[in-house]
Design a protein that fits this description.
This protein is mainly alpha-helical. It has 16 helices and no strands.
Length: about 400
């Protein structure tokens, strides 16, 4: 009841409805909302392990920070998506970003391990704002423009992955807690920005009118319901396989270059920065031009095949300097995946289900963010150094084959 009241209170008035001529301004604004959100998420990465180590020296406890966040996101994302379909994107975005701010604040205050975990759990539960932002983009985009506009999410992530850790490291010089407080402030600014400037994207006549039921709180049911829709099951499977391999490889990539090439901190940082630059450049200059000409299905299939090739090339690379261009090519291939899969999926659901779809996609990704790193750690330790690269390449090839078998919508 309290959640419903909060959503109603922040719902836009009738005059705030999105006008067609304001679409570009709304996309620009939602991009900055996403960018600030990603910056907040990644700002904690340089300091979170050190904060946890104050309370426990066990590596598994450090990983709990990520796992608890991902679990909260998995549980809540489909529900947040359904709330967006029912009450509109703007109120759900406001409530979720406010929850993010609260989660950062609690993490910064700390005091004990369970408080740190509580802060990240709250952050995970309210992390559906990026999925809601994706639904917002789908609402205001024409079908033929969706793949181009969805690249905004990848660009926000790439820039956020550059700016967030840099600011986290900078503010971490003041104290380990300062990045968490700065992230809380950034999220609160996001709340104000969204409240005063962001119009609603989903008109009343396109909203889901059915009341929420207990089954709406079960993420497994939500994923199952979406998977049964024509063509969506294969696309969700492709998303799961890609996310599984990607998250697994990403979790062990730094360890791989350290152990194989004796890379030092600045070299790893440069690797990440160049990857972010590659994604931003690809989303700006390449993806919007290639996908309309080639089509989503072919673009996605070729990018997955390319991803498998470059993953394998990194595994076999004899010199460290080769990893830099290869990793940039990996990032370029990655930049195609989200807009392709999101556009293909969005074209298979009604506008009233767009938020649910984005929530389900986010839930699948967060679940793979738990299992992917666990798998990668096991095969890295027990098979061979760098095993996630060539094994992940095989998984990505399987994803490419499944995507190639999907029927055009």
């Amino acid at each position: 009841m309290q959640l419903r009241l909060a959503l109603i209170l922040v719902a836009p008035r009738k005059r705030d409805r999105l006008k067609p001529h304001k679409t570009r301004n709304s996309l620009t604004l939602i991009f900055f909302v996403m960018l600030m959100d990603v910056m907040g998420i990644t700002m904690l990465s340089p300091v979170a392990p050190q904060i946890v180590l104050r309370y426990s020296s066990e590596a598994v406890v450090v990983t709990l920070i990520t796992i608890v966040y991902a679990c909260g996101q998995f549980i809540a994302s489909p529900l947040i998506g359904k709330l967006g379909d029912r009450y509109g994107r703007r109120p759900v975005l406001l409530v979720s970003v406010l929850g993010q701010s609260l989660g950062y604040l609690i993490f910064g205050l700390g005091g004990s391990l369970w408080i740190l975990l509580l802060g990240r759990l709250i952050g995970g539960i309210t992390a559906g704002n990026l999925a809601t932002a994706g639904a917002y983009i789908a609402d205001v985009s024409k079908p033929e423009e969706r793949s181009k506009n969805f690249t905004l999410i990848g660009t926000a992530w790439s820039l956020g992955l550059i700016l967030g850790p840099a600011l986290g490291g900078l503010f971490g010089q003041i104290s380990l807690e300062t990045p968490a407080f700065v992230a809380a402030a950034v999220a609160f600014v996001n709340v104000l920005l969204s409240f005063f400037l962001l119009p609603e994207s989903l008109p009343l006549e396109k909203r889901h009118s059915l009341a929420l039921s207990l089954r709406d709180f079960n993420p497994v049911i939500a994923i199952s319901d979406m998977a049964r829709k024509p063509g969506l099951g294969k696309l969700l499977l492709v998303n799961a396989l890609f996310s599984f391999a990607f998250n697994g490889i990403a979790s062990t990539s730094a360890l791989f270059v350290i152990q194989k090439f004796f890379a030092v901190t600045w070299q790893i940082s440069l690797l990440m920065i160049l990857a972010g630059v590659s994604v931003a450049a690809s989303n700006t200059f390449i993806v919007p031009r290639v996908i309309p000409r080639v089509g989503e299905r072919i673009s996605g299939t070729l990018s997955l095949v390319g991803l498998a090739i470059f993953y394998s090339a990194i595994f076999f690379a004899p010199f460290f300097w080769l990893v830099y261009p290869l990793n940039m090519l990996v990032s370029m291939m990655n930049s195609f995946i989200f807009p392709v899969l999101t556009t293909l999926s969005a074209n298979r659901v009604d506008p009233q289900e767009m938020g649910t779809l984005m929530g389900v996609t986010s839930a699948v990704g967060s679940l793979m963010n738990v299992f992917g790193p666990l798998w990668a750690g096991v095969v890295y330790d027990n098979v061979m150094l760098g095993a996630p690269y060539w094994m992940g390449a095989l998984i990505v090839v399987l994803a490419a084959w499944i995507l190639s078998q999907t029927r055009p919508q």
